[in-house]
Records
---
Amino acid sequence: KKVLFSGMQATGTLTLGNYLGALKNWVTLSDEYECFYCVVDLHSITIRQDPAELRKRARNLLTLYIAAGLDPEKNCLYYQSHVSGHAELAWILNCFTYMGELNRMTQFKDKAQKHADNINAGLFTYPVLMAADILLFQSDVVPVGIDQMQHLEITRDIAQRFNNIYGDVFTIPEPYIGKTGAKIMSLQDPTKKMSKSDENPNSSIYLMDDPDAIIRKFKRAVTDSGKEIIYTEEKPGIKNLLDIYCTITQKTVDEAVKEFDGKGYGEFKLAVGETVADHLRPVQERFAQLSKDKAFIDGIIKENAEKANYFATKTLRKVQRKVGFPDRI
Ligand code: ATP
Ligand code: MG
């Protein structure tokens, strides 16, 4: 089987963007690939975190992976901090990555602007750690949203550079981007992506929002002063709502546009809100159920960390040998 790797940060509560852009695709791909789905807590501390909060969020995120439909028997669900190979490989890859390459990363520029009081070296080398995450498992595919494309490209460049020097060490990964839902926009500013670290809670639908909150946020979603429900770049708010609606219902844009022909924005927003609320309800119910079963989740965390460590160590030893570190006796 081919190998798939992906992960999410435990920086906040997952949004509909994370769900439609990544998690929902993970579930459909999990039969076809040998899958590693990581809670990337090493990445999370590039931004200041409250320790107790981070621990709680990381556990909730892993639980949510299962609630969204990932079978923990078939998929390796684990914490990045439980597999030291991530950090060890990241160090080595740091020495094969140029400052100039990292300087071009748009996520760094965005986050440095947002967190001007804490522009740390970890934030700058974030893409190298991400490259290590992916290459550690010799991953063939990486399902991500469009915002992570640039990081995937640098991963491929680093892997290629390493292979050119040392021979075929790393598999060169391919991105997997869903046909729809790959870039869900903020409900308050449809020119910005929906993000779980956005300060305004009305910008994002959180996976744990109750139906009333979901519908209220959609009703308040920023659109435009027009009336027509059409899919065009000139109406980013309406376009975003159509994207959300179509990704969930699996209808085509044409079908959706026809369905809402002649209807007002109010009615349209309500319909999208109800569709999202209905879709998330079973995930929320499973999450509540699973959260009560401490022993079950603990077991998964332990077993899967062992499994991930086993595969990670194989690549790591090979890389260490290639760069000239002494053999272990
Ligand atoms: P943060 O603001 O803390 O970076 P985030 O919402 O960007 O949070 P990440 O943990 O960085 O979430 O990304 C997890 C996954 O979700 C990645 O695959 C990313 O591409 C995807 N993703 C993030 N935001 C969106 C979005 N608005 N639309 C579609 N996919 C998204
Ligand atoms: Mg992000």
Note: The chain has a mean pLDDT of 96.
---
Amino acid sequence: FERMALKRGLFVVIEGADGTGKSTQVLNLTKRLQSEGYPCSSMRFPDRSTQIGGMIDSYLQCKSNLSDESVHLLFSANRWELKNQITNTLASGTSIICDRYAFSGVAYTSSKPGFSLCWCMGPDRGLPKPDLVLYLHASEKLAQSRSNYGTERYEKREFQNKVAEMFEEIRAVDKTLTWTDYTVERGIDEVTDDLFGILQKELNSNLVKEVGKLWM
Ligand code: TMP
Ligand code: MG
């Protein structure tokens, strides 16, 4: 009688520009996975609940100013402070659906003048590597129709266009990552159904390989 190796959780990151509905989908997908019997929890970056997250929150709401370099490092530190939580959760067999990750970190800072992709990627090298990145696209009109769009730093059209360009560059750098594009054109529940369908195949595969290290 051979004991089956414990299947680890799947690490899924949802990325996209502001206003694509990522947060809603992360929450709905997590509930959907749980209800279908897959242990699952959600995370988000920035995680504004920590001390570092509080500094980031204040910066995003334009209540404080930080140099572009230092806020970039804070965003990265916010991921590193939750690294053990990520690896422990996955090891226990629970999947993670994560709202933004290092790809946002690099896309947003490298959209500012004078920042190279290489410099921006540095601090996040070695973080737990996602098994799948779901990249949500939405029309500008849809993004801007979101009730609170435009209230935070970065929520401006030209900047968002640059961010979208940078996401394309970032994915081209590392071909070992699996990116899946999805264009948000349907209602919230239909989108959740579609995304769940994309994840199902991966969830049913026997994930015994260890979690990788990002960009290493
Ligand atoms: P949120 O709206 O998903 O809470 O994200 C807040 C903003 O922070 C959003 O405009 C994207 C930006 N961001 C970065 O600039 N760097 C990062 O590392 C992350 C995770 C988000
Ligand atoms: Mg936002």
Note: The chain has a mean pLDDT of 93.
